[in-house]
Amino acid sequence: EAQVTQNPRYLITVTGKKLTVTCSQNMNHEYMSWYRQDPGLGLRQIYYSMNVEVTDKGDVPEGYKVSRKEKRNFPLILESPSPNQTSLYFCASSPLGAGTGELFFGEGSRLTVL
Amino acid sequence: GDSVTQMEGPVTLSEEAFLTINCTYTATGYPSLFWYVQYPGEGLQLLLKATKADDKGSNKGFEATYRKETTSFHLEKGSVQVSDSAVYFCALWNFGNEKLTFGTGTRLTIIP
After folding, report:
1. CA dist., res. B71 & res. B23, Å (int)
2. Which residues have CB under 8 Å from A1's CB, separation 6+?
3. Do B93 and A102 touch (CB under 8 A)?
4. pLDDT score of B91
5. Cis peptide before A8, with omega less than 30 degrees from 0?
6. Residue B91 is inside which H or E element, if any?
7. Is the dihedral of CA B23, B27, B33, B38 positive or negative?
8. Nearest CA-CA distance, residue B73 and chain A, Å
């Protein structure tokens, strides 16, 4: 089954404790992206990747890092989480980039930073 | 920059009612427009899209027409069902960007 898989789905952590949210897709897509969803703000892009070893900042990259060492994986790293990073995070992929508009989303990872 | 404005929710309707969710956009050039749906506990799914002016996107009984003169892409359905309860997001893509710009989402609840 074609899918985007995120882990963990739920996480409560404390300020400053490094964490990684993994994202993996099995559709051989070149393009992958991370969004955060906050009430009243919709979804905002954090980072995206056009292909292996190619990443770029989105609208809200501060406090986050990403890497793209393999085509299928695009982990989101919070080096020193803060409470303002409490949010619902979505990973997405696409075969042809954002221009097709057809992004395939994971089920989301709800992160709480205390 | 580009932006998308959706009608404020939540929206509550009775089953078989007519649905309209308003969406307007601000963008340079000729963006592509999309509606995504998020069912409870799930990620977003593409519902429909339109890539040029006057195009009509449709899927699962939902429709939206790309109106460049009014910069709008309103979502409509003639007879909603309980299973349509979800959050609906209007979004746009513009040339040169590698992201979708989303509206804030509209939560729809259908009562039997």
Report:
1. 9
2. none
3. no
4. 94
5. yes
6. strand B86-93
7. negative
8. 15
- How far is A25 from A4, CA to CA, in rounded Å? 4
Q: Which amino acid is at A87?
A: S
DSSP state of B69: T
Q: A5 to chain B nearest CA, in Å?
A: 10
Would you give the DSSP letter of residue A72?
S
Burial class from Cβ neighbours inside 10 Å (0-12, 13-18, 19+) for residue B89 reads buried
Interface test with B, best of A1, A88, A103, A107 (most B CBs within 10 A): A103
Tens digits of residue pLDDT in A4-54:
999 999 999 999 999 999 999 999 999 999 999 998 888 999 999 989 999
* DSSP structure class, residue B10: -
Residues of chain A with Cβ-Cβ distance to B43 below 8 Å are 4, 90, 92, 105-108
Phi, psi (5° rounding) for residue A59?
Answer: -85, -30
